[in-house]
Amino acid sequence: MRFTKMQGCGNDYVYVDLFHEKLSGDPSKLAVAIADRHFGVGGDGLILICPSERGDARMRMFNADGSEAEMCGNGLRCVAKYVYDHGIARKEQLKIETGRGVLTVDLEVQGGKVRRARVDMGEPILEAAKIPTLLAGNPPIEQTIWYTPEPGDTLAVTCVSMGNPHAVTFVDELTDELVHRVGRLVEGHGVFPKRVNVEFVKVNSRTDAHMRVWERGSGETLACGTGACAVGVAGMLTNRFDRKVNIQLLGGDLEIEWGADNHVYKTGPAVEVFSGDWPS
What we know:
This protein is an alpha+beta fold. The protein has helices at 27-35, 73-85, 176-187, 225-237, and strands spanning 2-8, 11-17, 45-50, 57-63, 68-69, 93-98, 101-110, 113-120, 143-146, 154-161, 165-170, 197-205, 208-215, 219-221, 244-249, 252-258, 264-269, 271-277. A hairpin with a 5-residue loop joins strand 16 (252-258) and strand 17.
């Protein structure tokens, strides 16, 4: 089975083109094996590029632990690049079907190849029951959760869904302790029925911030596109950001805009790394 490794801001996945390949077996099991960084290709998970009756292609995304997720913003840009660069649809505006619905991607093409992409991520989901979270508020803004029974082990989170659930917390410093220990604990916290992606954010100005993310099912990753969108929305809801903000992630920068139409737009790079054959 032919695969292609791609990355957007260091958020790397293994992609399989089901327009031309056949997938045998359980994709969840394949995701665990192929994403293993020691015994497989290595990546944050597996993304399947499938035919669609509703768009130019359909994206299915599996985390490194085999769980299927609704969306991946960095993965979506890479899917759009693959669809254009490999001739599935040679259009500079693509419609990609996702677990979030059909999303529009505008491509920046240079030398016949996609360099960057701007994704209309749709409207943020701010109703607690639809995020989903048991925390109060629509949206839940800076709600306190206890992540251990110890006194003082609390976190103020603002919750947003971009088709998948996010808990955003604003901190003075970004530390491994926060991301690796607290992120893991918050991911599986009982107030998040479907687990949650956890973003830790240090604000630099009203138009710039640093972010690290603990992703549901994958652990810390170099970037998370839906997470950056959620951070932008959370920062605007809490009056920390203007309507346009640059989010600096470990793997690169993403430009986030919460438009007047209530849609969130995300712009960033998409890079093809290499291709190979996986024994099926």
